[in-house]
Amino acid sequence: MTRDRRLAWINGLLLPLFNVLTAFLATAVVFLFIGIDPVEATKILIYGALGYDEGLGYTLYYATNFVFTGLAVAVAFHAGLFNIGGEGQAYVGGLGITLVALYIDPALSAWILIPLAISGGLLFGALWAIIPAYLQAYRGSHIVITTIMFNFLASALMVYMLVHVLREVGQMSPESRNFPDVTWLPFVHDVFAGFGYNIAKSPLNLSILIALLFSFLVWFFLWHTRWGFAIRATGKSNDAAVYSGINPKKIIILTMCISGGLAGLVGVNELMGVQHRLFLNFNFGYGFGGIAVALMGRNHPVGILVAAFLFGILYQGGAELDFELQNVSRDIVVVMQGLVILFCGGLEYLYRPLLIRFLAPIETSE
Amino acid sequence: MNDLLLNLILTLDASFRVCIPLIFASMAGLFAERSGVVDIGLEGKLLMSAFIAASAATVFGSPWIGLIGGIFASCVFAMIHGFASITYKGNQIVSGVAINILASGLTMILTLAWFKRGGITPTLQADERFLSITLPGVDIIDHIPIIGVIYRELISGHNILVYLAFAVVPLVWWVVYRTRFGLRLRAVGENPKAVDTAGLSVEKIRYKALLIGGILCGIGGAYIAIAHNAQFTKEMTAGQGFIALAALIFGKWHPYKVLAACFLFGFLDALALRLQGVVLPVIGEVPVQLIEAIPYLLTVILLAGFIGRAIPPKASAQPYIKEL
């Protein structure tokens, strides 16, 4: 193996693997600290998430959300942008979906309405990202700070919309009326029942296919189109991109629109797939979870699918832990997210000096 | 007239109380960012310190031990941030986000493990928290019109951490602009290479800045849990770390301007609370969400350069790598 190949192996596979393992190890330490056997906990977690139909359904349902937000963060990362605003974009995307679902004539066919509602999510998510993008590209304000601010603005906007605009007269809780059935995405258990197979009920719905489709589209877009190339080039080196005739300002806007749009799809799963109405904080935690998923998945759609599945397992298994053990709640998953972001993101170079030193003698002997 | 004055003073008084954590956190952020480390993790440090402060205060029965515990917790998180972003030269923002999420999860897990309740700590007794202090002379000045009310309601009757917050700001100014450390701190944030060439350790200065930030954030978090409130509750910092970050930018990384921004944001917060459900002439019912959104809106507008310009320290967000 040449030196370059070996370095690619270290950076691409060995380091990320070590980092993920360290995050798991750190979680095990947290478990020990609160007096829980980590092996026992892992068993419960895995059984809860994968051991039976219903659990698996929930796992995939949670994973669907993480695919959307993970892709959103990853696309932005490829352009060298850190989109921390997935939380807000997902929230406002839900508003786009709701507006289509509630205000467009429900007599239309589902084949028209569902794509329209999905586009509503894409569009509103993108709109919520385009302002920070514009400000970064043309006014020089930092995207991280503006997207954080836009998360809070989104939350204020959505509370206002739910309380003053979308809430039905006489309704106490701030939520919209139900969407017409024609905009509902079918549950997977219903689809299976249609073919004569009976599987347990779960919130898993056809959004998962949309998530897979978008994973493919993102992969194709980033690695097989001119725009995707421009995005990656800008992320690698702004100067080189300019030199080859790419306008980084436009790339920032384009990237953030795609990123925000993808985050906006969380509502497809949550609102069109499961809840069939808009309510407060339906997006809670998925935007930030997407950061962990993107970092763990190395910003590649395949990696993201794997990482999202893993986080789905953690979410669902965490609920099982909550149920089975006294001393722990599903918030352990949040701790784990934090550790994954710390070790796969902030400390991504933790083992590099060690590995390089370890491999150096082999190198010189060649 | 008197009613209006009292109302105004009470709103100002409430703004004092809510802007204290903003002051501590934004001064913490000031040190970090002046040294070239972007501190997204203020929120997490506040939350962690609020939780540990409340836990320590309830276990040991003393607010002072609570305060020390809070400071310690916040410093540990600051050092994790430093370890990732200074020693290992990782992305400062990513590790800051990690700290926030970690704090959010850990506080939930530990409340359950330590106190058997999800997300809250036991309510603190009066002697376990910082109580209001009545300043001397309130009775004497009280019957002087206007000044009496101002002295009684606004200046007297806060807990010790409130007075500490207002003392910290000039101290920060003095350290940043009048001491050798402050000069080096600012230099590291603007041009770390120059500092390195002068034979000083960039890493050491940045670690020191983060440690000071950890202490200040720790006091801010302790204030929230054991002075302003009497227990820790789930996500009780509610984004104040981010508002502090906004205030830091809004005040252009200068202690007094940041203080003014904190006060403005605190005032808006108190105002939103007071105007909840109030119907004003002409405007009608005030949309509270709009007032709550103003700090964020203002910061975005300022950052965009539409009202003045906020230029961060030049080297911020860049890990310093010595020449190879």
Regions of chain A with pLDDT < 50 over 5+ consecutive residues?
none
Q: What is the CATH level 1 assignment of chain B?
A: Mainly Alpha
- SSE order of chain B, as H and E? HHHHHHHHHHHHEEH
How would you describe the oligomerization state of the chains in this entry?
heterodimer
The structure class of chain B reads: mainly alpha
Distance between the termini of chain B: 70 Å
Proportion of helical residues of chain B: 55-70%
Radius of gyration of chain B, whole Å: 20 Å
**Widest beta sheet: strand line-up of chain B:** 1-2
Q: Roughly what is the average pLDDT of chain A, rounded to an integer?
A: 89
Alpha carbon gap, first and last residue of chain A: 10 Å
The largest sheet of chain B is: 2 strands, antiparallel
**Strand portion of chain B:** under 5%
What are the SSEs and their pairings?
The complex is a heterodimer of chains A (366) and B (324).
Chain A: H1 3-33, H2 38-50, H3 53-78, H4 86-103, H5 110-139, H6 143-166, H7 188-194, H8 207-224, H9 226-236, H10 238-243, H11 248-263, H12 266-275, H13 286-296, H14 301-324, H15 332-346, H16 352-365
Helix pairs in contact in A: 1-15, 2-3, 2-14, 3-8, 3-11, 3-12, 3-13, 3-14, 4-5, 4-6, 4-11, 4-12, 4-13, 5-6, 5-11, 8-9, 8-14, 9-11, 13-14, 13-15
Chain B: H1 2-34, H2 42-60, H3 63-87, H4 92-115, H5 138-141, H6 147-155, H7 160-178, H8 180-190, H9 192-197, H10 202-228, H11 240-250, H12 255-274, E1 279-280, E2 284-285, H13 288-303
Antiparallel strand pairs in B: 1-2
What's the short story on this structure?
With 366 residues, chain A is mostly helical.
